[in-house]
Structure formats: structure tokens, C-alpha cells
From TrEMBL, chain A:
UniProt membrane topology term: Single-pass membrane protein
Chain's role: Component of the ubiquinol-cytochrome c reductase complex (complex III or cytochrome b-c1 complex), which is a respiratory chain that generates an electrochemical potential coupled to ATP synthesis.
Location within or outside the cell: Cell membrane
Transmembrane segments: 12-34
Keyword match Metal-binding: yes
GO molecular function list: 2 iron, 2 sulfur cluster binding; metal ion binding; quinol-cytochrome-c reductase activity
Protein's name according to its UniProt entry: Ubiquinol-cytochrome c reductase iron-sulfur subunit
The species this protein was found in: Hyphomicrobium facile
NCBIfam families: Rieske_proteo
Keywords assigned: 2Fe-2S, Cell membrane, Disulfide bond, Electron transport, Iron, Iron-sulfur, Membrane, Metal-binding, Translocase, Transmembrane, Transmembrane helix, Transport
Automatic annotation (TrEMBL), chain B:
Domain Cytochrome b/b6 C-terminal region profile: 232-413
Subcellular location, record wording: Membrane
Family to which this protein belongs: Belongs to the cytochrome b family.
Protein name: Cytochrome b
UniProtKB keywords: Electron transport, Heme, Iron, Membrane, Metal-binding, Respiratory chain, Transmembrane, Transmembrane helix, Transport
Entries under PANTHER family matching the protein: CYTOCHROME B (PTHR19271)
GO MF, one annotated term: oxidoreductase activity
Length: 190, 438
């Protein structure tokens, strides 16, 4: 073979440049077609709700809706709070706090999953971290599982009173959404 | 198509005119009239034709249902009731479509097990087989999205559970799974937005499917049909022309199948469904027991077999990922059968050891189907884990090992010899005689 054939020449350059243009063009044309499926502006706009907690007595629970997801809000009894606090985090399947109000990687203590001064309130995204069912435990008389929190009937995941996974196939604790107390009895989620 | 040359002779001037410009009649005649088919095909070979009819039936009933259906959060559930009660013959069209999906899967599963028994996946039919697996995947995607459309409780929660499978990718790269799931949903939960896009895809995929079926039949006509002996066609007397021999047998099989189809559609249209799907979707209440349609149950059982441990092996936070990977591999693995099976003998009729493993594999799949319909607790979980293991061992151990250690029984010299040794007659006589000269 002659050396000329191995040297890149003007034609090689044109072929490579032409193909690169086609590839970039195709990719940028594809982008809108992929992006159109992501949550749209009207869905993103509905991103915060206010909930009045005053009617919820100790031991009771309510479910709010935020971004199409159920939010579990429970006013825990003293015994439930104690049970949640007296757990060695190291023994948990998921030892992360999973709290969107914290920067990340905090240990999953009950204190890290609630807001200081409002420790009786637990606020959770009520979606099982396994495959997305709504766990039972909000209504009176629901099965709550052996840790007194929530029980997911779909594949048997058991959550404790802090919403942490204790047993079953779910990999993570129930997520704590971004929220804040706007008054003593009102929270704003999102 | 294939090595077989056409002997089409146009009978009219118009036929001759067209043949010189677009030889479509020639193609049809050589592919479906005088195409040589093995003379010993049994009724399991009628399912290809049955499947073609199923696909056409789904498209015809689906297109007319789409004229009355509303793909929206508020309208979907009511529009189905409207179809069932108000639209002229809507009840019948809807039943034919929903029962049709089940019948389609029944036929495709029989068709696939036929392939396993007679070694139809082996060389030179690998591409044909892989196209078949692609067809099955497309059918699964289509049926899954179709089942969303009635927007009942099972529809809603079925989609929620299955789309959430992708969130397992969060264990590999945090956030990746969630991003994919929200992209699929078009929101932060399953909603009318999701329903609308699933309807668009449910309308599209059957036509993609039709294209792949075309490739499947093309590949079939290049390599020729397998047959119960698994032997290659060696001489003209091994075959008969497709019409009227195979077409007549296909019709008998098809009509028997249609009787079963009609019985379900007209007498027990909801037998294969779930009562919960007549309750409108409610994002706040999960039904106590989510079960997919029967044809997904074996794969669902494999998914659920991976609880926090598998046969005593702890899986920790990887449990979900393992279940998802196992479920998808259970389907994908089928495509690798041509290379996993080391035996050169195709038909299990001549494979004394493999034959028993085949029947055990069939039993495994039925058992997994049963377990998929039961709650995931106690003994059912353990049984699902054992049968999941059996399922994978069939592909990864039985197929390679049995092929190496087994001594096959004596094969007949040819298809003709096999037929004649069983008291079959020689060549057909009368108007359709002498296929060997074709
Ligand atoms: C591969 C072929 C197809 C399969 C396996 C399939 C499967 C299904 C299934 C399982 C359902 C849910 C039935 C129920 O439980 O009510 C369904 C519904 C529906 N499909 Fe299909 N389908 C196919 C082709 C089509 C086509 C080509 C169209 C045309 C647009 C279509 C339109 C519809 C509509 C409008 C519904 C909602 C009405 C109903 O639920 O009865 N389908 N399909
Ligand atoms: S979705 Fe909750 S355990 Fe599977």
C-alpha cells in the first residue's frame, strides 16, 4: 500500500465532517421528541400545597395530594414516637434519612425524618419504594404491620412509625417530601 | 421466496400485464399456494396461521373501538361503559378485542412450546426464532398498554407497578430510574397524561408488529418449515404443496380455535379479567391484591420471587433490581436458545433425556403462572423461588449439558421414510398429484 492511501486527505476530512454534522443534527432533532414526554409546564406548576393540621388529633392521620401523589401525615402518639426514636439506625435495611429537607446522607434517625419542635408529626410520600403501591395504615382499622407504621399489601413491605422500611422487598424508607410549618398547625408541601 | 422457484402462469391479459410490472400474484402463489411444506406437519403447525388471524382480528376490532374510546383521565372509564352499553354491537366488539388478546397469547405460547419441543430454534432458523421473540416482546408491550385503556383499578395499579420497575435503576445510578419513570409518566405519578400516550402507542405497535411478522414469514420461507421429525427436507417426496394440503389443515385448526375464542367472547367474556377493573381508577387506594393478566403471571412470579432474600441468599437493597433483571432476562434468554442447546438433533422425539426436561419446563411455566396469581407470602414465595431457579436452569444447564451427554435415538432416514414406516401412503394422487414436479 502506498503511503498516500494512509494519509488522511481532503476527501476523508469531508466525509468525517459530513457524518459528524448528520449525527449532531439527528441528535438535536431527536431531543424535542424525547423531551416532550417529560412532565409539562402545567404539571410542574402545581408544585406546592398547604395543609391545615388542626383537625388531626393525636393518633389520627390524613392523606393529602401533592403532584398527584398521596402524602401521608400522621399525628403520632407518644408511644409511637418513642418506638421510632429507640431504634438503632445501624440495624435498619436503609440507614439513610431520605429527607428532602436535608442536604443528603444523614443517618435515618427519627429526628432526621421530622421537624424539630414538631416531632409528633410525620409527613411522608405515601408511595411504597418497592413498586409504587399505596401502603395501608392511614385509615382506622387498616393493617399497619408488625412495627405499627404502614404495611404494603402488594408484596408485603413493612414500614415503622417513622416510615422506615423494616421488612419486605422495598429497598428504601418512605421519602419525606420538602415541607415546612408555616404556622403551628399548617404545613406547606413542596 | 426461498430456493423455490415460482411456476405462476398468468391466466388473463390483465394478469400478464401486472405480472410484468409488479409480480405480486406470482409472489403470493409461490409463497402461499405451491410453496412446498413438509408432508408430516401436525396440528401444532396450524398456530402460525391462527396467530396471523389473531393479529388481524385485534387490528380490526381495535380500530373500530378507537372510534368510540376517549383516552382521558375523565373520559376513559365511562367511554368503555358507553361502548359496552350504547354503541351498536359495542359489547361484542369490545369482548372480541379483550378476549382476543388472551387468545393471541394462548396461541403464541403454544407456538413457542412447539418450537422448544421440535427444536425449531436450531440452525438454520436462529433469525426466525429471534424475530419470534421480538414479536412476543412487542405483543407484551401492546397488551400491557392496552390493558391500561379501560382505566379501572387494575389498569391503573398495573401500570404503576410495572413502570415503577424502572426505578430499580436508582440502585445503579441514583436518580436515573426516577428520571426514566417520570419521563414515561409525563408527571410525578401515573395520570391521564400517561393514559393518552399509552393509547397512541397501543395504536401504533400492532402495525410495527405486522412489519416484524412480515420479516418472520420471510425468514421462514428462506429456511423452510421444520417438522415433527426435525429432519431437513431431502427430496421432493418429503413435501406437499401448501395449497390445498397445509391450507386445509390450517383451516381445521383455525376453526377449532375460533370455537374456543367465540365461547369465551360470548359466554364468559370477563372470565379471564378482574372484577377490580370495573372499578374506576383511584390513585389513593391500591387494590388489596394486584394481579396482571394471566399471560403475564409466570413473569410476574419471577419478579416477585426476589424478596429481601432469594433461596436464603440475602439481597438487601438489590432485591428489587434482581427481580427486575430476572424478569426481563427470563424473556430475553429465550432468544439465546439456538446457542444454548448443544444437541444437533432437533426434535425431542429422538431425545430421550431432553424430552423429560421439556415436559418439566412446561410444568415449571404453568406452576410459575399459578404462583404469580397467589399473594406473595409464606410457602408461595419459596415455591416461586424454586421454580424460578428451575426456569433458568432449563436454559443455562439443561440445554447445554443434556445435549452433550445424551445419546439420541435412531433417526429415520427421511421424512418420507418416517411417514411410510407408520403406514402412511405414498404420493398423493389425483388433481394435486406430483408435487415433486413443482
Ligand atoms: C397486537 C394487537 C393488540 C393487542 C394484543 C391488544 C390488546 C388489548 C388489551 C389487552 C386491551 C384491554 C382490554 C380490556 O381489558 O378491556 C385493549 C384495549 C383496547 N385496544 Fe387493543 N390490542 C391490540 C391491537 C389494537 C389496535 C390495532 C387498536 C387500534 C387502535 C386497539 C385499540 C384498543 C382500544 C381503543 C382499547 C380500549 C377498549 C377496551 O378496553 O376494550 N388495539 N387492547
Ligand atoms: S409495592 Fe409495596 S411491597 Fe411491592
Amino acid at each position: 500500500m502506498s503511503t498516500e492511501a494512509l494519509e488522511p486527505n481532503r476527501r476523508d476530512f469531508l466525509v468525517v465532517a459530513g457524518n459528524a454534522f448528520v449525527a449532531v443534527g439527528a441528535a438535536s432533532l431527536l431531543w424535542p421528541f424525547i423531551q416532550q414526554m417529560n412532565p409539562d409546564a402545567s404539571t410542574m406548576a402545581l408544585s406546592s400545597v398547604e395543609v391545615d393540621l388542626s383537625p388531626v388529633k393525636e393518633g389520627q392521620a390524613i392523606t393529602a395530594m401533592w403532584r398527584g401523589k398521596p402524602i401521608f401525615i400522621r399525628n403520632r402518639t407518644k408511644a409511637e414516637v418513642e418506638a421510632a426514636e429507640n431504634v438503632d439506625v445501624k440495624t435498619l435495611p436503609d440507614d439513610n434519612a431520605r429527607n428532602e429537607n436535608l442536604p443528603g446522607d444523614e443517618p435515618g434517625t427519627d429526628a432526621n425524618r421530622t421537624i424539630k419542635g414538631h416531632e409528633n408529626w410525620i409527613v411522608l410520600i405515601g408511595i411504597c419504594t418497592h413498586l409504587g403501591c399505596i401502603p395501608k395504615g392511614q385509615a382506622m382499622g387498616d393493617e399497619r404491620g408488625e412495627y405499627g407504621g404502614w404495611f404494603c399489601p402488594c408484596h408485603g413491605s413493612v414500614y415503622d412509625t417513622s416510615g422506615r422500611i423494616r421488612k419486605g422487598p422495598a429497598p428504601r424508607n418512605l421519602e419525606v417530601p420538602t415541607y415546612a410549618f408555616t404556622t403551628d398547625t399548617k404545613i406547606k408541601i413542596g | 421466496m426461498g430456493g423455490h422457484t415460482s411456476n405462476y402462469v398468468p391466466t388473463s391479459r390483465w394478469g400478464k400485464w401486472l405480472d410484468e410490472r409488479l409480480p405480486i400474484a406470482r409472489l403470493m402463489q409461490s409463497s402461499f399456494v405451491d410453496y412446498p411444506t413438509p408432508r408430516n406437519l401436525n396440528y401444532l403447525w396450524t398456530f402460525g396461521g391462527i396467530l396471523t388471524v389473531c393479529l388481524l382480528a385485534q387490528i380490526v376490532t381495535g380500530v373500530v373501538l378507537a372510534m368510540h374510546y376517549q383516552p382521558s383521565d375523565a373520559g376513559a372509564f365511562n367511554s368503555i361503559e358507553h361502548i359496552r352499553r350504547d354503541v351498536n354491537y359495542g359489547w361484542m366488539l369490545r369482548n372480541l378485542h379483550s378476549v382476543g388478546a388472551s387468545m393471541f397469547f394462548l396461541a403464541v405460547y403454544i407456538h413457542i412450546f412447539r418450537g422448544f419441543y421440535y427444536g425449531s430454534y436450531k440452525a438454520p432458523r436462529e433469525v426466525l426464532w429471534i424475530l419470534g421473540v421480538i414479536i412476543m416482546l412487542l405483543m407484551m408491550a401492546t397488551a400491557f398498554m392496552g390493558y391500561t385503556l379501560p382505566w379501572g383499578q387494575m389498569s391503573f395499579w398495573g401500570v404503576t407497578v410495572i413502570t415503577n420497575l424502572f426505578s430499580a435503576l436508582d440502585t445503579i445510578y441514583p436518580g436515573l430510574g426516577t428520571a426514566i419513570v417520570e419521563w414515561l409518566w409525563g408527571g410525578y405519578a401515573v395520570s391521564g397524561v400517561t393514559l393518552n400516550r399509552f393509547f397512541a402507542l397501543h395504536y401504533l405497535l400492532p402495525f410495527v408488529l405486522t412489519g416484524v411478522v412480515g420479516l418472520h414469514i420471510w425468514a421462514l420461507h428462506v429456511v423452510g418449515q421444520n417438522n415433527p421429525t426435525g429432519l431437513d427436507i431431502k427430496q421432493p417426496s418429503d413435501t406437499v404443496p401448501m395449497h390445498p394440503y397445509a391450507t386445509a389443515k390450517d383451516s381445521v385448526g383455525l376453526f377449532a380455535f375460533l370455537i374456543l375464542f367465540a365461547w369465551f367472547a360470548f359466554f364468559v367474556p370477563d372470565y379471564l379479567g378482574h372484577a377490580d377493573n370495573y372499578v374506576e381508577a383511584n390513585p389513593l387506594v391500591t387494590p388489596p391484591h394486584i394481579v396482571p393478566e394471566w399471560y403475564f403471571l409466570p413473569f410476574y412470579a419471577i419478579l416477585r420471587a426476589f424478596t429481601s432474600s432469594f433461596l436464603g441468599i440475602p439481597l438487601g437493597q438489590y432485591a428489587k433490581l434482581c427481580g427486575v433483571v430476572a424478569m426481563f432476562s427470563a424473556v430475553i434468554l429465550i432468544a439465546f436458545a439456538p446457542w444454548l442447546d448443544t444437541s444437533r438433533v432437533r426434535s425431542a422425539k429422538y431425545r430421550p433425556i431432553f424430552k423429560w426436561f421439556f415436559w418439566f419446563f412446561l410444568f415449571t411455566c404453568v406452576a410459575l403462572g399459578y404462583l404469580g396469581s397467589k399473594p406473595a407470602e409464606g410457602i408461595y414465595v419459596i415455591a416461586s423461588q424454586i421454580f424460578t431457579l428451575c426456569y433458568f436452569l432449563f436454559f443455562l444447564a439443561v440445554m447445554p449439558i443434556v445435549g452433550l451427554i445424551e445419546t439420541p435415538s435412531r433417526l429415520p432416514r427421511s421424512i418420507t421414510d418416517d411417514v411410510l414406516s407408520k403406514g402412511g401412503t405414498g404420493l398423493p394422487t389425483g388433481a394435486t398429484a406430483a408435487p415433486e414436479s413443482r
